[in-house]
From TrEMBL:
This is Methyltransferase domain-containing protein. It comes from the Bacteria. CDD domains: AdoMet_MTases. Residues 53-141 form the Methyltransferase type domain.
Amino acid sequence: MTGDATASARATSQYATTTGNLTARIALHAYGTNPQSWFAWLGERLPLARDVLEVGAGTGELWHRIGPRRRLTLTDFSPAMCARLREVPGARVLRCDATYLPFRAGTVDAVIANSMLYHLDDPDAALREFARVLRPGGRLAVAVNGRDHMAELNTLGPVIGCPDLAVRFHHRNDVTAEATPARVAAHFTDVTVERYPDELVVPAAEPILAYIVSMIGPLTVAEESAARAAIEARIDAEGAFRVRKHTVLISATRGSR
């Protein structure tokens, strides 16, 4: 998959038939320095009353961490992800496109989109759809990353001869912490932004290598050796491979019109 692929094409190649890539990425975040995990932090801030819909729910890790909820619906475009989502107790699981949700207008109390808008070719169409299915006064929660999120990993691109590594790590369509609040405000009111404070401190090369492989596929022996050497040199110099994170939660309300 080249850097020129569309957002949806990359998502299909990454997620349609496997949950392994997402699992590898979640694993790297276990090295965060914030004592409160992302899922616990997010769970405290989500609108979880009554009918809750998570779009692009992936492996359902959020609900395994914070516990299932009554009247919870989980959707994803990927058959592999939907199979995993069916392991969430009590959840209704639907396979569908985020821009064409199979719900009547005004029938959902809360919509959650956790780190998924950047997988879409038309994220604004999804935001319009979220607004359509929400009841007046319903709440939206969107998590996105900043343009500088995990930028330290981009430096490994030249090491392994992958000049588009930064493209793969950065989000297309400018679905970022910097640009997305304004996009949300075009469809919702009471928009707020809160940053999750965290940094990864990774003591070994393997989790970082697994993350890179999850993004670009298997490395050759030479590529892996070069990447490992670069990572271990950083660890030797600094005691760990440090990766800065920039993730925000954007919350908003569906207006009365």
